[in-house]
Amino acid sequence: MENIKQDFEFDFVKGEIKTATDSDISENNGFQAKTDRNLRPYVIKTENLSKFYKNKAAVDSVNVSVRQGDIYGLIGKNGAGKTTLFKIILGLAKPDNGTIELFNDATSIAESRKKIGYLIEYPSFSAKLTAFENLKYMALQKGCYDEKQIIELIDLVGLGNEIHKKFSAYSLGMKQRLGLAFALLGSPELLILDEPVNGLDPEAIQAVRNLILKLNREKNLTIVISSHLISELSKVADCYGVMANGKLVKEIDETELNEIVKPFIKLVVDDQTKTIDVLKSMGIENVKLANNGTVYCYDLVNRLSEISKKLAENGIVIFSISANEGDIENYFISLLGGNRQ
After folding, report:
1. What's this model's pTM, rounded to 2 decimal places?
2. Distances (CA, A) of 247 to 87, 198, 326
3. CATH number for 291
């Protein structure tokens, strides 16, 4: 099933979403159309990246390619190696093998890392300080203190009315949003978020999700998000990496994914050749043949009864006919080597 993401504006204070039509988007409302992914430069590119702990590979010969403007979803079960991979990219862990290239530069890694904001594990905010005081302290540590930017970031993540409330009084969702504001200090070009919605309630998850989309679309910020929640990642990501047991088992963009999981009608008939002719007369060209009289139809999948009636009128015996919705979650589960419960 095609993964459709609507454009929107989100008011964190009111908790309201305003969807944007195509005409809204064309009127310079801040949303930036993306160029062809293959034409955009690499922001992260690794080759055969590996990290071992006690002779066990936490990251095993991983080749990741993230391009400018991506929302790259890194999918994997807990312990798959996602956090370790992020730490290596950020310089928080040293690889045992392999190379890293950031922003098309393999020689100035330390300088390139200054362009990255991240949220990995939880920032050590002080419970006694307010949101503003916490971010001021963090910004001073990072050498990027700007009072105006801090106020803007707090407002951006929907905490403007809580700017002077102490951190100890924040809900889990509010704390996570303050963590996102921390990651945005210094105006990074790349944002790396490790399980940003883990443990949040549905309302808080929606707020974080909408903020991620807003940053990508309005600021053209490249974002890499890890999660084991496939359904959530599929609502924001436009390309994916799948990790299992330290290996990157698949990298796929949204276009390729939609082609794989698109809906179809499955027919089992007595005469495949005649069935193809009838389907073509209805304007259905995208079909595939399989064994035992099976025909897969990828056009007009919402017209099941019409197709069935037309085939019957032409004397074709239908042994079975069924509509199948594409399932992104099942596809990724199969890559992870698991079964849906």
Report:
1. 0.77
2. 16, 22, 26
3. 3.30.70.270
